[in-house]
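Customer escalation, tier 2.

The customer says the design service returned an amino acid string that "doesn't look like it belongs to this structure." They asked us to rerun it and document both sides in this ticket. The original structure tokens are below, unchanged.
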């Protein structure tokens, strides 16, 4: 067990190690360094593959290390059928993507930086799917948003890439905040902070009055990350990233993080009316919107990106549908989609890399120049279209088995699934046939077969799509059934195979193929009419995002002009208004106003004289006709307060007060003489009345606070502590000095730093003023002193 824990921890850390090593490896080995870098995800893949038999038997693998035990926070992982399948997809496809990127970005000046980003993302995504701790899960969830921002904006010199990166970060980051709130509510509802404990909580979550709030917040995080309508627009725009990013983040990994979250929470949050209404509705809508938008596109990557949106919608629809077969269909389609979509994205990248274009209308006749690429594209397209003998066929058959029924709900979602799958059929073969068949079209680059590192990845995924279907019994036992069992929360045995499926599912499959062939045959006309319809429908959420961002910028600018007008007196007034509200309002609201004591009868003559001097100093400040007199009068009041401290047995405090008042008077007087200010206060009467009233209210607030504090029972615990330990621990007889320099030495250091910075700032102001005067004198001697 200790060996498994150590190896799992190493597997989780390897992508981060790869991120650190990538720039140096690429610098010394160039593009061939991809072979060495691929060893990191390959080791992790082999480790997780070794755990497959254990998990297939229904066991789970847990482990981790305590982080903050007092708060029950840990760096812990939980591997069951679902999380292990995702871990295998992330590391397995990640290995192929690293090799693919080595050839695709060969010679790129920032290839090392790219590999660092892709490894950081790999580590973050791996952290999401294996995390047991809520905190660990959320940290990695946000890291995927940050790293995807870096990857989408990799070509940061292009405005479109910067916009797409920012859009993805804003949408998924906002969803992450919703998820954080949802996780906190789940913690409050269940009292646990680990996924492994949460998914066995039974009906605790479903019966809680906070269930709906938690569900909406969790869906906010899942829908934004997995590009569900109306948040779908960021994913196609993310195709501004290099093709290896599109093939990895936006088909097989990141965009499925939201799907993973919904699958993980299905045992404890599913099977409720809200779950079975919201998920199928938004999933079905996303399926229809994604496939419709895909038909319109001519860019290969954009066509595939929109079908990724539709596939994610199909997965969400199946998760929320509620039946056992729907869960099994979701498990099968999860694997099938990762295989065929990753392969097709890499094929699109190969075509772009070798011909110089991805526009399907500018491609044709590539089958002779790129026969291996065409074969790979056909295999992946067959799986995407749901045709035998590929794994996509098994998924599609199970989808129709799950959705087919006689009630209106089943009929509606079956029709949606048939429509979406038919359009995906047409798109799949548009990608696999249009660029390769027909007459040879001249392309910007002379087409030829891709090097081995480019076709190795898509070929491996296409072959896996075939082998996993041919040996479906083994695939289900090792992978599909454990995934479905984790989603449903009970043991599952999937039996669908390549054998003929007589009945309604077969009829629906034949209908899908017929409609798909019809759309493919009339693809240009379908693209035209879809463009007409979308033009008539108006601008969509993508334009709405731009409006929201520009509106936010305008609102922020106006708000800044109000709250930051550039006038110091407004800032000071707002500060003291808040201070007055804090001091006055709570005592009144909570009935904590102090009792006003009677004037003490034992005030001695010299004490009264000092108080009288302080009062005279205050009056002198108020009636002073110029600023310098007011500063000196303020010093008189401060010195009187220092004497009061001395009379009442606080010599250290008195000394500090004397020093502060002396420095304040000297510094303020120096500043007043050096800066060209009006000698007297020229504020209008209304302003002076407001400022005076505010000052009185603040003074009254502090007086009430001090009175309330002195009337509370005195707790001498700190006094006893300092008296007991100042000598024995700090070796000082003066308790006050020990407190200042030892017990709160860091605080004292901060105060000294503040005083030092203030002094430097004042010196800088004086030097700036002196330098300005010298320049004015040099240019125009008569101008010096003109403003006095």
């Amino acid at each position: 067990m200790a060996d498994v824990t150590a190896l799992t921890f190493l597997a989780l850390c390897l992508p981060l190690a790869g991120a650190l090593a990538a720039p140096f490896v690429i610098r010394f080995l160039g593009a061939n360094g991809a072979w060495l870098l691929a060893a990191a995800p390959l080791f992790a893949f082999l480790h997780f593959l070794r755990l497959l038999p254990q998990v297939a038997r229904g066991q789970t693998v847990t482990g981790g290390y305590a982080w903050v035990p007092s708060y029950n926070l840990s760096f812990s992982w939980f591997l069951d059928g679902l999380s292990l399948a995702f871990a295998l997809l992330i590391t397995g496809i990640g290995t192929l993507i690293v090799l693919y990127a080595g050839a695709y970005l060969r010679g790129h000046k920032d290839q090392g930086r790219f590999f660092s980003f892709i490894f950081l993302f790999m580590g973050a995504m791996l952290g999401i799917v294996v995390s047991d701790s809520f905190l660990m899960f959320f940290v990695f969830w946000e890291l995927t948003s940050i790293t995807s921002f870096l990857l989408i904006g990799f070509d940061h010199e292009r405005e479109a890439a910067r916009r797409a990166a920012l859009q993805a970060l804003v949408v998924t980051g906002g969803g992450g905040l919703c998820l954080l709130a949802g996780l906190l509510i789940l913690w409050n509802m269940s009292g646990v902070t680990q996924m492994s404990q949460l998914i066995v909580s039974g009906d605790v979550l479903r019966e809680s009055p906070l269930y709906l709030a938690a569900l909406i917040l969790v869906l906010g995080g899942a829908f934004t990350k997995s590009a569900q309508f109306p948040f779908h627009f960021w994913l196609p725009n993310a195709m501004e990233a290099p093709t290896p990013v599109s093939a990895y983040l936006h088909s097989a990994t990141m965009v499925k993080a939201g799907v993973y979250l919904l699958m993980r929470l299905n045992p404890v949050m599913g099977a409720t009316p809200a779950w079975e209404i919201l998920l199928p509705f938004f999933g079905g809508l996303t399926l229809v919107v994604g496939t419709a938008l895909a038909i319109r596109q001519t860019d290969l990557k954009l066509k595939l990106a929109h079908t990724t949106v539709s596939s994610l919608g199909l997965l969400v629809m199946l998760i929320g549908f509620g039946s056992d077969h729907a869960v099994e269909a979701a498990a099968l389609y999860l694997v099938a989609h990762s295989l065929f979509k990753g392969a097709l994205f890499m094929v699109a990248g190969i075509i772009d890399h070798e011909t110089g274009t991805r526009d399907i209308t500018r491609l044709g006749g590539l089958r002779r120049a790129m026969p291996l690429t065409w074969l790979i594209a056909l295999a992946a397209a067959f799986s995407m279209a749901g045709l035998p003998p590929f794994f996509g066929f098994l998924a599609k058959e199970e989808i129709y088995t799950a959705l087919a029924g006689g009630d209106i709900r089943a009929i509606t979602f079956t029709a949606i699934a048939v429509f979406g799958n038919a359009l995906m059929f047409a798109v799949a073969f548009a990608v696999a046939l249009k660029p390769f068949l027909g007459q040879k079209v001249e392309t910007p680059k002379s087409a030829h077969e891709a090097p081995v590192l480019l076709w190795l990845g898509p070929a491996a995924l296409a072959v896996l799509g075939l082998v996993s279907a041919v040996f479906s019994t083994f695939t289900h036992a090792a992978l599909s059934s454990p995934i479905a069992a984790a989603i449903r929360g009970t043991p599952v045995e999937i039996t669908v195979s390549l054998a003929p499926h007589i009945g309604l599912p077969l009829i629906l499959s034949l209908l899908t193929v017929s409609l798909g062939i019809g759309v493919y045959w009339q693809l240009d006309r379908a693209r035209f009419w879809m463009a007409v319809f979308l033009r008539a429908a108006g601008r969509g959420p993508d334009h709405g995002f731009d409006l929201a961002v520009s509106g936010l910028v305008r609102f922020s600018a106006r708000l800044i002009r109000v709250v930051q007008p550039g006038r110091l007196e407004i800032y000071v007034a707002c500060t003291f208004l808040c201070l007055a509200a804090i001091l006055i309002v709570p005592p009144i609201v909570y009935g904590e106003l102090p009792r006003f004591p009677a004037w003490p009868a034992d005030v001695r003559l010299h004490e009264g004289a000092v108080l009288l001097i302080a009062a005279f100093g205050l009056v002198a400040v108020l009636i002073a006709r110029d600023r310098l007199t007011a500063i000196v009068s303020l010093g008189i009041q401060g010195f009187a307060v220092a004497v009061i401290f001395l009379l009442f047995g606080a010599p250290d405090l008195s000394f500090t007060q004397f020093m502060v008042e002396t420095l304040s008077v000297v510094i303020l007087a120096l500043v007043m003489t050096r800066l060209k200010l009006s000698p007297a206060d020229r504020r209008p009467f209304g302003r002076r009345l407001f400022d005076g009233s505010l000052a009185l209210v603040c003074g009254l607030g502090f007086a009430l606070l001090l009175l309330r504090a002195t009337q509370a029972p005195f707790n001498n615990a700190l006094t006893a502590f300092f008296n007991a330990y100042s000598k024995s621990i700090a070796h000082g007889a003066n308790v006050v000095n020990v407190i200042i320099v030892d017990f709160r030495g860091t605080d004292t250091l901060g105060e000294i730093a503040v005083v030092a910075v203030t002094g430097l700032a004042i010196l800088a102001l004086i030097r700036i003023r002196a330098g300005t005067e010298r320049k004015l004198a040099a240019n125009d001697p008569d101008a010096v002193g003109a403003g006095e």
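Tier 2 assessment: The sequence is consistent with the input. The two ends are 83 Å apart (CA to CA). The longest helix spans residues 745-779. Sent an explanation to the customer and offered a walkthrough call.
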